[in-house]
Structure formats: structure tokens, C-alpha cells
Automatic annotation (TrEMBL):
Entries under SUPFAM superfamilies matching the protein: C-terminal effector domain of the bipartite response regulators, CheY-like
Keywords: DNA-binding, Phosphoprotein, Transcription, Transcription regulation
Matches recorded under PROSITE patterns: HTH_LUXR_1, HTH_LUXR_2, RESPONSE_REGULATORY
Domain Response regulatory: 4-129
Source species: Lysinimonas soli
Listed name of the protein: Response regulator
Domain HTH luxR-type: 156-221
């Protein structure tokens, strides 16, 4: 089945280019276009795409706030692949850490510059559609450390009360950028055991991927920024 995508960008020519590139692939289908964040939210609610390609800067509602609104909605009580919240792939012309941080914190699964190669765009859509985070955990950690160090703790920061001691250990290693295999070696357990821990951590914290789990680890105080 094709990956169903909405393209949200306030520049008509840019939006048309993305649509043409994605529709030229065999496994991706653009099912809607939006010229601002509010349209993107309304359209996503109506057509239930797999991925929303979301510009950061748009009128009426910016891409980060549109992402928050879409991902804050509860899942419908249906099959796992029906009525699920879409994956969000953020787009921008600016390589600015603040956008990356806010996008991840809002629940976006990836972040891509608009001048990326056409093949990179399609690959990015595929990555987030299958549930993976596009940002490398090491890059994510650098961005998060900078902003956690520079800002006061947020009232809505993540709470780790529901996590077991072992789950906290695993989360701390995820925040260091370790893979499941590397965590298994560190803790001397099976890789499948680590996968189970990570899945439970995601569920308890309400995060969607490893990038957002890194945010949780830092903002909760489990991991502190390095000097």
C-alpha cells in the first residue's frame, strides 16, 4: 500500500514541487495540500494521512503548533493502523537548533531542510512512515542539551514516576545515543529485552520515538547537560 501524505506549505510553488516529487514515486501518494497550519490540521483530521510534510513557518498557525494539535488528539478506538495520529516530518529553510528542539518536543518524527535532495525527501517520508525517528540521537542530544541548559524547567516537563528503575537505566542510555544492541551489551541482557523496555518506556511517557524519549530524559532531570 502507498504511504498517504499531506503537504503543508504556504508557498504554492514550493508545495507543488514537493507534491510532484512525491507523486513520482511508486510507494507514496499525496492525498491533500494545505497552505497554512490550520488547513493542515483540518485536512489531516479529514483524510487521515500516514505522514504530514509540515513547513515550520506558515500563516494562521505555524507548523509546530499544528503538530502539537494533531498529536494531542486521542487515538480512535479502532485497529492500530486506522484512525492513528499521523507522523509529522517538519520542513524549513533554516538550520536553527530552536526549531529542531521545538519540533521534536511537539512530537515530530523528523526534521528536513527544504534544499535536501529529492531522493532524501522520499526516503525521509518512508523513514517516519514506518515509525522511526529521522533525527540521529546524537544530533538530538546536542540540540536538547543546549536548550535545557539555557532555559528554566517547563511546567509540563515529563515525569518518570511510572518507570521502573531498570526502565530509567534504559532511558538514560537511550539519551546517550546508544542503540538497542549497545544498551543490551551495556546492561548484559538480550537485545529483545531492551526492545521490550523501550516499548514500555514509550507507552508510559507517551512519546512516539527515540528522539522524543531523549527530550523526556533531559527535561525530567534523569540526564543532565554536560559542561
Amino acid at each position: 500500500m502507498s504511504i498517504r501524505v499531506i503537504v503543508a506549505d504556504d508557498q504554492a510553488m514550493v508545495r507543488a514541487g514537493f507534491v510532484a516529487l512525491l507523486n513520482a514515486t511508486d510507494d507514496i501518494e499525496v492525498v491533500g495540500e494545505a497552505a497554512d497550519g490550520q488547513q493542515a490540521v483540518e485536512l489531516a483530521r479529514a483524510v487521515r494521512p500516514d505522514v504530514v510534510l509540515m513547513d515550520v513557518r506558515m500563516p494562521r498557525l505555524d507548523g509546530i503548533e499544528a503538530t502539537r494539535r494533531l498529536l494531542a488528539e486521542p487515538r480512535e478506538p479502532q485497529a492500530a493502523d486506522v484512525g492513528a495520529r499521523p507522523r509529522i516530518l517538519m520542513l524549513t529553510t533554516f538550520d536553527i537548533d530552536e526549531y529542531v528542539y521545538e519540533a521534536i518536543r511537539a512530537g515530530a518524527s523528523g526534521f528536513l531542510l527544504k534544499d535536501a535532495l529529492p531522493a532524501d525527501l522520499a526516503d525521509a517520508v518512508r523513514v517516519v512512515a514506518r515509525g522511526d525517528a529521522l533525527l540521529d540521537p546524537q544530533v538530538t542530544r546536542r540540540v536538547i542539551e543546549h536548550f535545557v541548559r539555557a532555559t528554566m524547567p517547563r511546567a509540563e516537563s515529563f515525569s518518570l514516576e511510572a518507570l521502573t528503575p531498570r526502565e530509567r537505566d534504559v532511558l538514560a542510555l537511550v539519551a546517550r545515543g546508544l542503540s538497542n544492541r549497545e544498551i543490551a551489551d551495556e546492561l548484559v541482557v538480550a537485545e529483545q529485552t531492551v526492545k521490550s523496555h523501550v516499548s514500555r518506556i514509550f507507552g508510559k511517557l507517551g512519546v512516539r520515538d527515540r528522539a522524543q524519549a531523549v527530550v523526556a530524559a533531559y527535561e525530567s532531570g534523569l540526564v543532565v547537560p554536560r559542561d
